[in-house]
Amino acid sequence: MASPLIRCFSKVGRQVSRPWSVCQHGLRNRSTQPDMSAEQAAALGVSYPPLQTYSEEEGMMRDAVNKFAQERLAPFVSKMDENSLMDPEVIKSLFEQGLMGIEIDPEYGGTGSTFFSSILVIEELAKVDASVAVLCDIQNTLINTLFTKLGTAAQKERYLSRLSTDMVGSFCLSEAESGSDAFSLKTRADKHGDYYVINGSKMWISNAEQAGVFLVMANVDPSAGHRGITCFIVDRDTEGLQIGKKENKLGLRASSTCPLNLDNIKVPEKNVLGQIGHGYKYAIGMLNEGRIGIAAQMLGLAQGCFDQAVPYTRQRVQFGKRIFDFQAMQHQIAHVATQIEAARLLTYNAARLKEAGRPFIKEACMAKYFTSEVATLTTSKCIEWMGGVGFTKDYPVEKYYRDCKIGTIYEGTTNIQLSTMAKFIDKEYDH
Amino acid sequence: MSRVLVGVKRVIDYAVKIRVKPDQSGVVTDGVKHSMNPFCEIAVEEAVKLKEKKFIKEVVAVSCGPSQVTETIRTALAMGCDRGIHVEVSGKDYEAMGPLQISKIFAALAKKEEASLVILGKQAIDDDCNQTGQMTAALLDWPQGTFASEVTIDGETVKVVREIDGGLETIKISMPAVLTADLRLNTPRYATLPNIMKAKKKKIANMKPADLGVDMVSRVEVLRVDEPPTRLAGVKVETVDDLVAKLKANGTI
């Protein structure tokens, strides 16, 4: 499986004998089609450009992250998965590249770009490692957005510049007894003068090992039901905050997922993010956007897996021809490619709708639901196409297969997405 | 103090499989992914490093070609160059453009911009000419440090370690000078997202070769472009005797 690309650029053409690195090499520049910028499309007189049209800035960002991910991140992936540990070097380089504060204002050290840029970044990262992509996704679409939209000047001052330069954030909603039924959460926040005492425990908290700040959803008034849920900013070094041992997971192993114990932790009043009792609204609102981010992650995962498997089918020869040339293989490959394309269009369209300020919740649900299903199909098929080698850990496809499963589960299970969509559809036929 | 000109060339991306046009007049470029020449990336990185070490004040990225080369200039800006110059060349002139025309343009710009250094990649991966740096130095009558794997500025002189066939050669040349970057000079940085955003605000000036008094007429005409001959399959033999017999049979020994 020697790479035939021998341009004198030694930093890429190395270690031909190890299948992992050969496969990684093939991921660069998968498309030979240059994308069109919005300016070029306008110049051609096309007033409704296709969804795969990017502004010059978006295109440059995507290319920069693609290159960074393939060259700088790829070598860490296998080890991080095996050890179930995100390398601090990786996190540092994400901050250095400006990937953790994509929409944050440059005033706070962020990149000052758009939501769609974040989506493209998450997709490119996921092509290489879904765990790194989810770290970046949670930071950008949940944590940063919450602070930007709801933070007081003081809170923004204190946290946004840290979030864009060196501090990871965690979003703490789920508990052992409340996953899909999020608003039945039991963590309580009792007011004592100018501070709150929070008691409870959280589960399945991503990034917990690395986070410097936790956004904890707790109920200040259980008698008011979900209208008591409030969002609290809790620093890592708060006394009484215990981060439990991380879960030993099937996939997304490099992403730390830990239970949290909140034992009489004192949080000052000024650490309430937004308004008391409005936490449930914020959670729903942010998760609608986060959904598109997860769609982008699953999309990148599917594409990355596909990009590994197809070159193999073009090189593997059986019965005197490439296995790609067998009609059954061609049909399967074309079918999967179609699903990925459809998933991409759903995701990009949902992102553009959100940016345009138009209703996007149903479309976001569709994007997340569909891409996670497509990721499952793609990764499963890719292992089959690669046969025995696909089943071994020497080749990257088995990791994509393990990583994709969480897509149908977190940030709103498939069933929740479908029910949400159904509610919208129901309303559409109201008149 | 010092201003550096860096040349960046837009070439077919190194990972693309090159195909010859059916009429054999050249290679297929339509719809093919292009990016900055890898040696130009190294040149940009060196210039930006020199600026960060405060040896020079301003880095100007220059590219010659049609409107698409502005993407390449923007990438150079995102890596840290301060401003760009786009010398517009298109159509037949662009297809016939070669090291001689480019070096004339760079020589004119170096004088116009009062540059202390012109840093170029040692060669472009599409034509592999390895001539532009040398020609530019000759036209300007400036010293040249080509195949540089290490560059150190010391007052008004530059110490250049060059990669040559026999090993490494260290030379000391006075500024202004032309340097060409070899592979091991540095590892180009990734354009960070905030720098990409900042690059949007940096200026790219437009001009034509005629504005610099350069005539683009080429003295070289490409007659034909062919693919390299396809490699024939080898033959496996069982023993050394078989090998000798086969070599004798086809007249090799």
How would you characterize this protein structure?
The complex is a heterodimer of chains A (431) and B (253). Chain A has 431 residues and is an alpha+beta fold. In chain A, the strands form 4 sheets. In chain A, strands 3-6-7-10 form a 4-stranded mixed beta sheet, with helices on one face. In chain A, strands 4-5-9-8 form a 4-stranded antiparallel beta sheet, with no helix packed on it. Chain A has helices at 19-26, 38-43, 56-83, 88-96, 115-128, 130-150, 153-165, 279-315, 327-355, 361-390, 397-404, 414-428, and strands at 36-37, 53-54, 168-172, 188-192, 195-206, 211-219, 229-235, 241-243, 257-268, 272-273, 317-318, 321-322. Chain B has 253 residues and is of the alpha/beta class. Chain B is built from 7 helices and 11 strands. Chain B has a 9-stranded mixed beta sheet with strand order 9-8-7-10-6-1-4-5-11, with helices on both faces. In chain B, strand 8 and strand 9 (167-174) form a beta hairpin. The longest helix of chain B is centred in the first third of the chain and has 15 residues, at 38-52. Classes of the chains: A alpha+beta (431), B alpha/beta (253). Chain B: Belongs to the ETF beta-subunit/FixA family. Chain B: GO terms for molecular function: electron transfer activity. Chain B: Pfam families: ETF. Chain B: Keywords: Electron transport, Mitochondrion, Transport.
Quick overview:
The complex is a heterodimer of chains A (431) and B (253). Chain A is α+β, with helices and mostly antiparallel strands.
In terms of topology, how is this protein built?
The complex is a heterodimer of chains A (about 425) and B (about 250).
Chain A: H1 19-26, E1 36-37, H2 38-43, E2 53-54, H3 56-83, H4 88-96, H5 115-128, H6 130-150, H7 153-165, E3 168-172, E4 188-192, E5 195-206, E6 211-219, E7 229-235, E8 241-243, E9 257-268, E10 272-273, H8 279-315, E11 317-318, E12 321-322, H9 327-355, H10 361-390, H11 397-404, H12 414-428
Parallel strand pairs in A: 1-2, 3-6
Antiparallel strand pairs in A: 4-5, 5-9, 6-7, 7-10, 8-9, 11-12
Helix pairs in contact in A: 3-5, 5-6, 5-8, 6-7, 6-8, 8-9, 8-10, 8-11, 9-10, 10-11, 10-12
Chain B: E1 3-7, E2 10-12, E3 34-36, H1 38-52, E4 58-65, H2 69-79, E5 83-88, H3 92-96, H4 99-112, E6 117-121, H5 132-140, E7 144-154, E8 157-164, E9 167-174, E10 177-181, H6 193-199, E11 204-207, H7 240-249
Parallel strand pairs in B: 1-4, 1-6, 4-5, 5-11, 6-10, 7-10
Antiparallel strand pairs in B: 2-3, 7-8, 8-9
Helix pairs in contact in B: 2-6, 4-5
